[in-house]
Write a structure and sequence with these properties.
With 255 residues, this protein is mainly β. It has 6 helices and 11 strands. The strands form 2 sheets. An 8-stranded antiparallel β-barrel has the order 1-2-3-4-11-9-8-7. It has a two-stranded antiparallel ribbon with strand order 5-6. The termini are far apart.
Length: 255
């Protein structure tokens, strides 16, 4: 065990997903990707948090890179999450009918949110281990989805503002209940509790921390063997194969 004060705050299932660009049904690389998502589904409940991750990839662990993101949807209804991820068609005045391709799964596994230090001054970490694909491929490499990794996880104080042209607009920002807003204690970030992640518009900061979280934090990531037939994206995110191409999840390939 690691010689540090470490508490497990939450565990569950993690999913990595991406949406191709408009009218791009055969993406071949990052240039064809519009958005990158991460979804957390805590154990013991039905709630799923869908997050958009900036730069369309996870932060680099070795260089302790920082990356921004935000919670875009929280729901106890898996069907509502899947509906947000479907293909869409819409009309524009200048380009006519446009097609927004369905989101594709790029990885699934298990995660832990731990806190190092005291409940008042600790630091949360998000650690995960993949179950699918068995062997990460070109898709996982592009999104920096390693077989396992850990990131320092903090939630931004919406009352502290953001640099110019960064972060969500005022209208998009979260309005936390008073108890959660008070938890910031006038600081720029809160890094002790995952409760803030249950609110749409919550902005997060991920910082690359460890390539092997089990060794670094003395925790056990309960990953299990999965296969294409029983992937959790089908049962827990309701992503039907008929709507969401699964080659990236199973084979690590773009198509």
């Amino acid at each position: 065990m690691a010689e540090r004060e470490m508490e497990i705050l939450e565990e569950g299932d993690i999913f990595f997903l991406y949406r191709p660009d408009v009218n791009e049904h055969d993406p071949e690389g990052m240039g064809d990707v519009q958005r990158f998502f991460m979804a957390l589904r805590p154990r013991g409940g039905r709630k799923t948090r869908l997050m958009i991750v900036g730069r369309k990839r996870l932060p680099d662990v070795d260089s302790h890179e920082r990356n921004w993101g935000f919670v875009t949807l929280v729901s106890d209804d898996a069907a509502a999450i899947e509906k947000e991820l479907r293909e869409e068609h819409y009309d524009t005045k200048t380009r006519g009918e446009q097609d927004q391709p369905a989101v594709r799964p790029a990885g699934e596994g298990v995660y832990l949110i731990t806190r190092e230090g005291s409940p008042e001054t600790g630091q949360m970490h998000l650690a995960y281990e993949l179950e699918l694909p068995e062997k990460p491929g070109a898709v996982q490499k592009a999104f920096a989805i390693a077989p396992k990794a850990a990131y320092a996880l903090s939630v931004k104080n919406p009352e502290k503002g953001s640099p110019a042209n960064a972060g969500l607009s005022k209208a998009q920002q979260v309005d936390f209940p008073k108890s959660l807003q008070d938890a910031f204690r006038d600081r720029r970030f809160e890094s002790e509790s995952p409760e803030h992640l249950n609110y749409e518009g919550a902005e997060i900061m991920l910082v690359g921390a460890r390539a092997n979280p089990e060794t670094a934090y003395g925790v056990d990531l309960p990953a299990e063997s999965e296969d294409a037939e029983h992937a959790d994206v089908f049962s827990k995110l309701r992503m039907a194969k008929s709507r969401h191409p699964i080659a990236p999840l199973i084979e690590g390939a773009w198509d």
